[in-house]
User: Fold this.
Amino acid sequence: MVNAFEGNAAETTTMIPTIKAFLTAHQLDEVVVVADAGMVSETNKKAIEAEGLRFIIGEKIPHVPYQLQKWQREHPGQEPDDGLVLTQPWPPGPNEQQRIQVRYYQYRADRARRTLRGIDAQVAKAERAVAGKVPVKRNKYVALAGARRSVNRDLEAKHRTLAGWKAYVTNINNPTPQMVIGAYHQLWHIEKSFRMSKSDLAARPIYARTRDSIEAHLTIVFAALAVSRWIETTTGWSIKKFVTTTRCYRTTYIKVGNQTLPAEEPLPDDLTTALDKIRARSTAH
Assistant:
C-alpha cells in the first residue's frame, strides 16, 4: 500500500486517512502508532486519540516535571542510576474524552554526558559574548534586556536538571516502561528504511508529474526496499555491500563450434555463504 500526497498537504489531513487505509488493507482492528515528537504534533496526537487509536510517542520535556522534582527532593545531590525510570499517570481533564495517558521519564548516563558537554560549550560561548570578547550571535543562553547582556542562568540550570532525561507518553492499556520504551527504540528500523529508500534506492528526486507515474515509482521503490531488507536480514550484509560485491561477478558463455562453455570467476567464500543463505531461505518458503 502506497499513499502519495502533495507537498503542501498538512500532516493533520494525511496521517489519519493513511492509518485507516492501512487498517482496512491489512484487516486489522487497531494499531499502535509509534513516533518521535518531531513527527507527531499535538494536533496529530489529539486526532489519533479522537479516532480511538493507541500511541507511543517520544516527547520533548519543556519543563522539569513533577516526578523529577519529587525524586530530586528525596535524593538531594544524588546522581540518578543509569536507566532509572519515573512514572507519571496523566488522567484526562473533566471535559476531555480520552484514555488515561502515562508518561515515563528515563535517565541515561550517556545521554546526560553528551547533553552536558553541549551545555558547557554553549554557556562558555555565552559568557564570552557577554564579556564582549566575541560578537553576540544566536545563543539561547544570552539574555538581552535593551543594551544589557547577561547569561541566562535559570535556563542553564533547567537544562542541566533535564540532561539525560527523555519522556515517553502512551495511552495503551496496562503499559510497562520496558514495553513502551522498547517499542520506541525500534524506530531505528524505520529510520534506516527511510535512509535506504532515499539514498540506495533513489526514491527522490521524482521527475514524473502524473499521479500514476509518481505512485508507480514509489511502488517500485518500496518493493525494492522490501527485497533489500529481506536480503539484509537473511545474509547479515548491508544492501550496499551486497550489490557492490555481486556486481563484480559475471558469467560469460562462449560458443565454440557446437559447444557452449561457461566462463566465470570463482566467487569468494563470504559471497558464496551469503548466496547459500538466500537459496536456503528461498527454498524454505
Notes: The beta strands are 32-36, 54-59, 85-90, 101-107, 142-145, 148-151, 165-170, 251-256, 259-264. The chain is about 45% helix and 20% strand. The first strand starts at residue 32 and ends at 36.
